[in-house]
Amino acid sequence: MMLKFKVDTLEGMDEATAAMYQKTDNGYQLAIEGLPEPENVDGLKAKNAELLTKLKEQKEAKEASDKAAREAADEAARKAGDVSHLEKSWSDKLAAREAELLAQIEARDGSLKTMLVDNVAQAMAAEISVSPGIMMPHIKSRLSVEVQDGRHITRVLDAEGKPSAATIDDLKKEFVSNQAFAPVIIGSKASGSQAPNSGAQGGGNSQGGSLADRAATHIKSKSWD
Q1: What's the pLDDT tens digit per position in 80-94?
Q2: Rg of the chain in Å (alpha carbons)
Q3: Which of 96, 150, 151, 219 is exposed most, by the fewest CB atoms within 10 A?
Q4: CA-to-CA distance for 44 and 215, rounded, in angstroms?
Protein backbone atom coordinates (compact mmCIF):
# COMPACT_ATOMS: atom_id res chain seq x y z
CA MET A 1 0.00 0.00 0.00
CA MET A 2 1.27 3.45 -0.94
CA LEU A 3 1.52 5.70 2.12
CA LYS A 4 0.80 9.41 1.88
CA PHE A 5 3.38 11.74 3.36
CA LYS A 6 0.68 13.99 4.85
CA VAL A 7 -2.87 13.15 5.93
CA ASP A 8 -5.60 15.14 7.66
CA THR A 9 -6.74 12.34 9.96
CA LEU A 10 -5.71 8.89 11.15
CA GLU A 11 -9.24 7.58 11.13
CA GLY A 12 -9.65 4.33 9.22
CA MET A 13 -5.97 3.39 9.55
CA ASP A 14 -4.85 0.24 11.30
CA GLU A 15 -2.83 0.70 14.46
CA ALA A 16 0.52 -0.19 12.88
CA THR A 17 0.13 2.33 10.03
CA ALA A 18 -1.17 5.10 12.31
CA ALA A 19 1.90 4.64 14.54
CA MET A 20 4.08 5.73 11.60
CA TYR A 21 2.59 9.24 11.63
CA GLN A 22 3.24 12.17 13.93
CA LYS A 23 0.98 15.11 14.74
CA THR A 24 1.68 18.47 13.09
CA ASP A 25 -0.04 21.85 13.20
CA ASN A 26 -2.21 21.00 10.18
CA GLY A 27 -2.66 17.22 10.34
CA TYR A 28 -0.28 14.29 10.42
CA GLN A 29 2.87 13.40 8.50
CA LEU A 30 5.14 10.37 8.26
CA ALA A 31 7.75 10.34 11.00
CA ILE A 32 10.95 10.21 8.91
CA GLU A 33 14.28 10.52 10.68
CA GLY A 34 16.55 13.19 9.21
CA LEU A 35 13.75 15.10 7.46
CA PRO A 36 14.32 18.89 7.87
CA GLU A 37 11.75 20.61 10.02
CA PRO A 38 9.52 23.07 8.06
CA GLU A 39 10.79 25.98 10.10
CA ASN A 40 14.40 25.01 9.29
CA VAL A 41 13.59 24.91 5.57
CA ASP A 42 11.95 28.32 5.82
CA GLY A 43 15.01 29.59 7.66
CA LEU A 44 17.32 28.35 4.90
CA LYS A 45 15.15 30.03 2.27
CA ALA A 46 15.22 33.30 4.21
CA LYS A 47 19.00 33.09 4.64
CA ASN A 48 19.45 32.39 0.93
CA ALA A 49 17.28 35.40 0.03
CA GLU A 50 19.29 37.55 2.43
CA LEU A 51 22.59 36.48 0.86
CA LEU A 52 21.28 37.13 -2.66
CA THR A 53 20.17 40.61 -1.60
CA LYS A 54 23.59 41.34 -0.12
CA LEU A 55 25.36 40.13 -3.25
CA LYS A 56 23.14 42.35 -5.39
CA GLU A 57 23.83 45.34 -3.17
CA GLN A 58 27.58 44.68 -3.26
CA LYS A 59 27.52 44.39 -7.06
CA GLU A 60 25.57 47.65 -7.41
CA ALA A 61 27.90 49.40 -4.96
CA LYS A 62 30.98 48.22 -6.87
CA GLU A 63 29.49 49.32 -10.20
CA ALA A 64 28.70 52.76 -8.73
CA SER A 65 32.21 53.02 -7.27
CA ASP A 66 33.83 51.99 -10.56
CA LYS A 67 31.71 54.50 -12.46
CA ALA A 68 32.63 57.30 -10.06
CA ALA A 69 36.33 56.39 -10.35
CA ARG A 70 36.16 56.42 -14.16
CA GLU A 71 34.39 59.76 -14.20
CA ALA A 72 36.97 61.22 -11.81
CA ALA A 73 39.82 59.88 -13.93
CA ASP A 74 38.23 61.27 -17.09
CA GLU A 75 37.79 64.68 -15.49
CA ALA A 76 41.41 64.69 -14.35
CA ALA A 77 42.53 63.69 -17.84
CA ARG A 78 40.49 66.49 -19.43
CA LYS A 79 42.03 69.06 -17.13
CA ALA A 80 45.52 67.69 -17.84
CA GLY A 81 44.90 67.43 -21.56
CA ASP A 82 45.60 63.67 -21.48
CA VAL A 83 44.12 62.79 -24.90
CA SER A 84 45.30 59.16 -24.85
CA HIS A 85 43.47 58.50 -21.58
CA LEU A 86 40.28 60.05 -22.93
CA GLU A 87 40.50 58.02 -26.13
CA LYS A 88 40.92 54.81 -24.14
CA SER A 89 38.01 55.74 -21.89
CA TRP A 90 35.71 56.28 -24.86
CA SER A 91 36.95 53.07 -26.47
CA ASP A 92 36.15 51.13 -23.29
CA LYS A 93 32.66 52.66 -23.12
CA LEU A 94 31.96 51.77 -26.75
CA ALA A 95 33.18 48.22 -26.20
CA ALA A 96 30.95 47.83 -23.14
CA ARG A 97 27.95 49.20 -25.05
CA GLU A 98 28.67 46.87 -27.96
CA ALA A 99 28.79 43.87 -25.61
CA GLU A 100 25.48 44.95 -24.07
CA LEU A 101 23.81 45.26 -27.48
CA LEU A 102 25.18 41.88 -28.60
CA ALA A 103 23.75 40.29 -25.47
CA GLN A 104 20.35 41.85 -26.23
CA ILE A 105 20.51 40.58 -29.82
CA GLU A 106 21.38 37.07 -28.65
CA ALA A 107 18.47 37.12 -26.19
CA ARG A 108 16.13 38.33 -28.95
CA ASP A 109 17.34 35.68 -31.38
CA GLY A 110 16.86 33.03 -28.73
CA SER A 111 13.26 34.14 -28.14
CA LEU A 112 12.55 34.22 -31.88
CA LYS A 113 13.96 30.73 -32.35
CA THR A 114 11.81 29.43 -29.52
CA MET A 115 8.63 30.96 -30.95
CA LEU A 116 9.20 30.43 -34.67
CA VAL A 117 11.17 27.18 -34.74
CA ASP A 118 10.90 25.24 -31.49
CA ASN A 119 7.18 25.88 -30.96
CA VAL A 120 6.28 25.11 -34.59
CA ALA A 121 8.36 21.91 -34.53
CA GLN A 122 6.83 20.85 -31.23
CA ALA A 123 3.28 21.37 -32.53
CA MET A 124 4.00 19.45 -35.73
CA ALA A 125 5.69 16.58 -33.88
CA ALA A 126 2.69 16.25 -31.55
CA GLU A 127 0.35 16.36 -34.57
CA ILE A 128 1.92 13.59 -36.61
CA SER A 129 3.86 11.38 -34.21
CA VAL A 130 3.25 9.01 -31.33
CA SER A 131 6.80 9.90 -30.17
CA PRO A 132 7.18 13.70 -30.54
CA GLY A 133 10.57 13.58 -28.85
CA ILE A 134 11.95 11.46 -31.68
CA MET A 135 10.54 13.71 -34.41
CA MET A 136 11.42 17.08 -32.86
CA PRO A 137 15.17 17.19 -33.80
CA HIS A 138 14.42 16.17 -37.39
CA ILE A 139 11.68 18.78 -37.81
CA LYS A 140 13.72 21.56 -36.14
CA SER A 141 16.63 20.92 -38.50
CA ARG A 142 14.32 21.80 -41.40
CA LEU A 143 13.14 25.13 -39.96
CA SER A 144 14.77 28.54 -39.52
CA VAL A 145 13.93 32.15 -38.73
CA GLU A 146 13.90 34.62 -41.63
CA VAL A 147 12.96 38.28 -42.10
CA GLN A 148 10.37 38.85 -44.81
CA ASP A 149 8.67 42.19 -45.51
CA GLY A 150 9.98 43.57 -42.24
CA ARG A 151 8.75 40.76 -40.00
CA HIS A 152 10.26 37.53 -38.70
CA ILE A 153 8.79 34.31 -40.10
CA THR A 154 9.36 30.56 -40.04
CA ARG A 155 11.17 29.40 -43.18
CA VAL A 156 11.21 25.76 -44.32
CA LEU A 157 14.64 24.48 -45.38
CA ASP A 158 15.33 21.76 -47.94
CA ALA A 159 17.15 18.53 -47.14
CA GLU A 160 20.50 20.33 -47.61
CA GLY A 161 19.58 23.06 -45.15
CA LYS A 162 18.94 25.76 -47.76
CA PRO A 163 15.84 28.05 -47.81
CA SER A 164 13.04 26.56 -49.90
CA ALA A 165 9.61 27.51 -51.21
CA ALA A 166 8.02 24.56 -49.38
CA THR A 167 5.25 25.24 -46.91
CA ILE A 168 5.10 23.91 -43.38
CA ASP A 169 2.23 21.71 -44.57
CA ASP A 170 4.52 20.37 -47.31
CA LEU A 171 7.14 19.57 -44.68
CA LYS A 172 4.56 17.77 -42.58
CA LYS A 173 3.51 15.63 -45.56
CA GLU A 174 7.15 14.88 -46.34
CA PHE A 175 7.76 13.49 -42.87
CA VAL A 176 4.46 11.57 -42.85
CA SER A 177 5.28 9.88 -46.18
CA ASN A 178 8.89 9.10 -45.22
CA GLN A 179 9.01 5.34 -44.54
CA ALA A 180 11.95 5.83 -42.19
CA PHE A 181 9.59 7.48 -39.70
CA ALA A 182 6.61 5.16 -40.34
CA PRO A 183 6.92 3.38 -36.94
CA VAL A 184 6.30 6.64 -35.03
CA ILE A 185 3.75 8.32 -37.35
CA ILE A 186 0.13 8.53 -36.22
CA GLY A 187 -1.72 6.64 -38.93
CA SER A 188 -5.14 8.14 -38.28
CA LYS A 189 -3.78 11.66 -38.60
CA ALA A 190 -1.10 10.98 -41.20
CA SER A 191 -3.63 10.72 -44.06
CA GLY A 192 -6.02 13.38 -42.78
CA SER A 193 -6.38 16.95 -43.95
CA GLN A 194 -5.89 18.55 -40.54
CA ALA A 195 -2.26 19.57 -40.97
CA PRO A 196 -0.37 22.06 -38.81
CA ASN A 197 0.02 25.43 -40.55
CA SER A 198 -1.97 24.25 -43.58
CA GLY A 199 -1.32 26.47 -46.58
CA ALA A 200 1.65 28.33 -45.05
CA GLN A 201 4.11 29.44 -47.72
CA GLY A 202 7.47 28.61 -46.19
CA GLY A 203 6.10 30.00 -42.96
CA GLY A 204 6.07 33.48 -44.46
CA ASN A 205 2.94 33.85 -46.60
CA SER A 206 0.82 31.79 -44.23
CA GLN A 207 -2.95 31.83 -44.04
CA GLY A 208 -4.72 32.86 -40.88
CA GLY A 209 -4.64 30.28 -38.13
CA SER A 210 -1.39 28.61 -39.22
CA LEU A 211 1.36 27.82 -36.72
CA ALA A 212 3.94 30.14 -38.25
CA ASP A 213 1.45 32.99 -38.66
CA ARG A 214 0.31 32.69 -35.07
CA ALA A 215 3.91 32.67 -33.89
CA ALA A 216 4.77 35.71 -36.03
CA THR A 217 1.67 37.56 -34.83
CA HIS A 218 2.68 36.80 -31.23
CA ILE A 219 5.91 38.80 -31.59
CA LYS A 220 4.55 41.83 -33.45
CA SER A 221 4.56 43.81 -30.21
CA LYS A 222 8.25 43.06 -29.58
CA SER A 223 10.63 46.01 -29.85
CA TRP A 224 12.87 44.28 -32.41
CA ASP A 225 10.14 44.11 -35.08
Answers
A1: 887 787 788 778 888
A2: 29
A3: 150
A4: 41
Q: Determine whether 99 is exposed, middle or buried from the number of CB atoms within 10 Å of its CB (0-12, 13-18, 19+).
A: exposed
Asked whether the whole model's pTM tops 0.90, one would answer: no
Does residue 139 contact residue 125 with C-beta atoms inside 8 Å?
Answer: yes
Q: Are 160 and 104 in contact (CB under 8 A)?
A: no
Residues 216 and 116 sit within 8 Å (Cβ to Cβ): yes
Question: What angle, 0 to 180 degrees and rounded to 10, lies between the N-to-C axes of helices 168-177 and 119-128?
Answer: 40
Distance of alpha carbon 215 from the chain centroid: 15
Which of 169, 163, 181 lies closest to 206 in space, CA to CA?
Answer: 169
Rounded CA gap, 164 and 155, in Å? 8
- Segments making up each domain of the chain, as ranges: 1-35, 39-104, 110-218
Measured CA to CA, the distance from residue 56 to residue 104 in angstroms comes to 21
